[in-house]
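This part of the workshop introduces the protein records we will be handling. To make this concrete, we reproduce a full record directly below:
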Amino acid sequence: MLRSFSLAFLCGFLSTLLFHQGGVFVLYLFKVIPFQPWDFSLNPQGVPKVISLAFFGGLWAMASLLLAQKIQKNFWALQIIFGAIGPTAVAMLVVFPLKGLVVSAPVVVGGLLLNGLWGLGVAMGLKLFKLPSTR
């Protein structure tokens, strides 16, 4: 069980760096969003923002693994939908208000897209590591 959660954390961490931030890179290139990917500026706790984001991506992936173990149907769709909705809802309903950030329709759509990409990356990682719930 510890191995599964550790690998799920790794999948989420790496998926944040590759899939989520890769999506940010593409949106930034096309001038859809104003902020750059892989932001290594420090957050108030002194941690690079992208590392903090990847850490939380790892935690979300552990929750994603638990969900996949409970619901063993439609693995790919479940991972993408969970990835899109879960982190986006928490960001928009909890994190943004705490930081005084504005939630708008384009921000929500962008969050769903980027976090859905993250969910796809997690699903690929879980399949790659052949975790028990993904066989």
Notes: The chain has one domain: 2-12+34-134. The first helix runs from residue 2 to 29. The two ends are 15 Å apart (CA to CA). Helices lie at 2-29, 49-70, 75-99, 105-128.
